[in-house]
Each structure stands twice: as structure tokens, then as C-alpha cells.
Design brief:
Structural class: mainly alpha
Number of strands: 2
Radius of gyration: 16 Å
Strand content: 5-15%
Length: 104
């Protein structure tokens, strides 16, 4: 059973049919590692206990887009981890190389 504080903090996640109360309990009980600070931040906010790993640079075609690529890769890692913990969806694959305007 979730505490009143957990219910308040994770109210939006509880509304999602894919998560609900059982899924939120699974997230709160999970201990995972994250490959980036961005992923760790998202996972901690979702209620997971996170061990932070070594930061892996996100692939990008342009140095100017490195920060955007880092955030995209971190968000994707967090979503995939949550899907795995809750047991929903199919594993995805991030196959994106960010490029600036006019680049191919």
C-alpha cells in the first residue's frame, strides 16, 4: 500500500493504466543503475532508487547539439528502465544522430 505522501507525489503516474498502484509500488521498490545524470534524475523523480554509473557521452553529429543529445539519451534510458521495471511495452532503441540545420 502506498503512503499518502507517495500517493501525492506520484499522483500522475497512478492515473496511467500502464502504471497504476501496482506499478508505482514496483517503481518504489526498484533499485537500478543509470548511465547518466539525466536518466538518474528522471528515475529518481519516478520513485526509483538509483545508483549512478559513469556518464556515457551521447552520440551526436555536431558538438553544438551534444547537450541536447545527452538529455534525449537520458530521457530515453529512463523510459526504457521504467518500462522494464513495470513490465509494460516492448524494448525500444534510440537510433538518432542529432544534426544541425543543413546537415545530412
Amino acid at each position: 500500500m502506498l503512503s499518502p505522501e507517495d500517493r501525492r507525489r506520484h499522483a500522475r503516474q497512478l492515473l496511467l493504466p500502464e502504471i497504476g498502484e501496482a506499478g508505482q509500488r514496483a517503481l518504489l521498490d526498484a533499485r537500478v543503475s543509470a548511465g547518466s545524470d539525466v536518466a538518474a534524475l528522471y528515475l529518481e523523480r519516478a520513485g526509483l532508487q538509483v545508483a549512478r554509473g559513469a556518464e556515457t557521452p551521447a552520440a551526436t553529429a555536431t558538438p553544438e547539439l551534444a547537450e541536447a543529445a545527452r538529455f534525449l539519451a537520458g530521457a530515453f534510458e529512463a523510459v526504457e528502465t521504467i518500462k522494464r521495471v513495470v513490465g509494460v511495452g516492448q524494448p525500444g532503441r534510440l537510433d538518432v544522430s542529432l544534426r544541425g540545420p543543413g546537415e545530412r
